[in-house]
Amino acid sequence: MKxxxxxxxxxxxxxxxxxxxxxxxxxxxxxxxxxxFKNQSLNRILQNLESDIRDNKWxxxxxxxxxxxxxxxxKNRKKLKKYSRDSIGFHLxxxxxxxxxxxxxxxxxxxxxxxxxLELIENESIVKSLQNKYSNHAWMKEVERFIIKKSDILIxxxxxxxxxxxxxxxxxxxxVDKKYIGDLNIPKEIIGRIIDKKFWQKYHLNSxxxxxxxxxxxxxxxxxxxxxx
Length: 229
Description:
The chain is mainly α and 229 residues long. The chain has five helices and two strands. The model has no long low-confidence stretch (mean pLDDT 86).
């Protein structure tokens, strides 16, 4: 009787262990799948970050040149007769027409966030940085729209008072080979609008530089998170 009881007990233990192991293996597989999905999403976010950096490097160059020409026009506004109309047309085109449009791609981050797999990221700094990054994008886009709106009257003035010398494009893809054909006493309103736009461009330029720095750090952190053992 005792032998039979021991036999059944052992069989029961074997069954319990088997079921437990089955659940354990299944749970490990689920965890591996979640980890794989998380890493796939992070890899796509890495690609987005690299794209953002390329865009912002272009934006940095465009905004910097626009500010530079805006400052040239303001500095020389009372002595434009000393300069060729081609030089004035060149700087007017850069100050007024160099517009940036940042492409904000949040799809992969939104997918990672809604899936709940954001919690699988061990480095809390990555989670916070991603949250701050995409919140910051919304504000940068808003500032961009504000600058574009401020550019409308300036671009209209440029079109009415400039003509193309050629259809050649600069390294950023803008027309700059232009000749100024308007009055050399540029209206105070236009000068004032150029200075006002330049103020907001400098603010935007600092945001771009900060974003480039933070995105570079984020790329390093995400790469470590993906490659951790």
